[in-house]
Amino acid sequence: MQLHLDQIIAETPKDRHAVLILDRAAWHTTKKLKTSERISFMHLPPASPELNPTEQLWRQLREDSLANRCFEGYEDISISACSAWNEFIEKPGAIKKLCSRSWVNL
User: Which end of the chain is more exposed for a tag (fewer CB within 10 A), N or C?
Assistant: First the structure.
């Protein structure tokens, strides 16, 4: 997480401010993170997966490719997850459609 923050801070122009919308995972809320005055955190409410685009992506992968299956082991899970991801990203605009919100203009 610290490497990610460092990258965002490095890429944010001096006259701009970045806001990160985060869930409440332990690595997002730890006091060990070094931040900058040019970056703020906005934490999602607890138990709100519908607001987290990553959760929407996982839901889609489960529905399309990963649900109702038995896996042979870790390697099978890894290969299946990678295959599901690769199929998903081959669909033009799939990520933007699934993860964008009308109230965010990027």
Answer: C
